[in-house]
C-alpha cells in the first residue's frame, strides 16, 4: 500500500550562507551525520546525492518536496506540482492522460504518474519548439525584423483559419 502524500513543501532558507556551509560539508569524501547522543554515521551515497540535489535546488531559490515515488497525491497536490489548475488536472485525468484511482468519491494520483506526464509534456513542448524554430529558420524569419515576424505570424494565422 502506498502512503498518502504528507510531505510538506519546504521553501529555501533566506540565509544562503547556511546552504553554502552545508554544501561544503557534503563535498567532503565521507560526510557524516551526528545524532544528539553523539553517534556518527557516514552518509550512504544515495542519501548524500539526494542532499546535494536538495541544496542545489534551494541555492537556486526552488522549493523542495521529498516524497516516495509511490506516493499518492490529491488532485490539488498533483495540480500544484504540474503548475496547472485542479479543474485542468481533472480534465487530464478524465481524458486518460494521467492514470488515477478513485477511492469513494476522491481521485488519487500516483506521484510517479504525474512525473511521467510532466516529462512527456516537456518532451512534446521541446519537439514543437524545435519544429517552430526549424520552420522559422527555413522561412528566413530570423533575418527579418520583429515587425516582419509579427506580420508573417498574422498571415499564417489567417491562412490557418481559412483552411
Main traits of this protein?
mainly alpha; 6 helices; two-stranded antiparallel ribbon; three-stranded antiparallel beta sheet; 163 residues
Summarize the structure.
With 163 residues, this protein is mostly helical.
Strand coverage percent: 5-15%
Number of helices: 6
Instruction: Please give the order of strands in the largest beta sheet.
Output: 3-5-4
Question: What Rg do the Cα atoms give?
Answer: 23 Å
Stretches where pLDDT falls below 50 for ≥5 residues? 1-6
Q: What would you call the shape?
A: flat
How many beta-strand elements? 5
Biggest pleated-sheet summary: 3 strands, antiparallel
Helix share, percent: 40-55%
> Would you list the SSEs in sequence order as H and E?
HEEHEHHEEHH
End-to-end separation: 52 Å
Average residue-wise pLDDT: 82
Instruction: Please state the structural category.
Output: mainly alpha
Care to describe what's here?
With 163 residues, the protein is mainly α. 54% of the residues lie in helices and 10% in strands. The chain is built from six helices and five strands; from the N terminus they run αββαβααββαα. It has helices at residues 16-26, 45-59, 75-82, 86-94, 111-138, 146-162; strands spanning 32-34, 40-42, 72-73, 101-103, 106-110. A hairpin with a 5-residue loop joins β1 and β2. α1 (16-26) runs antiparallel to α2 and α3 crosses α4. The longest helix is centred in the C-terminal third of the chain and has 28 residues, at 111-138.
Amino acid at each position: 500500500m502506498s502512503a498518502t502524500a504528507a510531505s510538506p513543501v519546504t521553501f529555501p532558507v533566506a540565509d544562503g550562507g547556511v546552504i553554502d556551509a552545508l554544501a561544503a560539508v557534503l563535498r567532503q569524501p565521507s560526510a557524516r551525520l551526528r545524532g544528539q547522543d553523539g553517534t556518527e554515521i557516514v552518509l550512504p551515497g544515495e542519501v548524500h546525492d539526494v542532499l546535494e540535489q536538495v541544496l542545489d535546488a534551494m541555492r537556486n531559490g526552488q522549493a523542495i518536496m521529498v516524497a516516495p515515488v509511490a506516493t499518492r497525491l490529491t488532485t490539488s497536490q498533483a495540480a500544484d506540482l504540474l503548475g496547472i489548475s485542479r479543474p485542468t488536472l481533472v480534465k487530464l485525468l478524465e481524458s486518460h492522460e494521467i492514470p488515477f484511482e478513485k477511492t469513494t468519491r476522491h481521485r488519487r494520483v500516483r506521484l510517479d504518474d504525474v512525473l511521467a506526464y510532466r516529462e512527456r509534456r516537456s518532451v512534446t513542448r521541446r519537439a514543437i519548439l524545435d519544429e517552430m524554430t526549424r520552420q522559422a529558420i527555413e522561412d528566413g524569419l530570423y533575418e527579418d525584423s520583429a515587425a516582419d515576424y509579427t506580420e508573417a505570424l498574422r498571415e499564417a494565422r489567417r491562412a490557418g483559419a481559412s483552411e
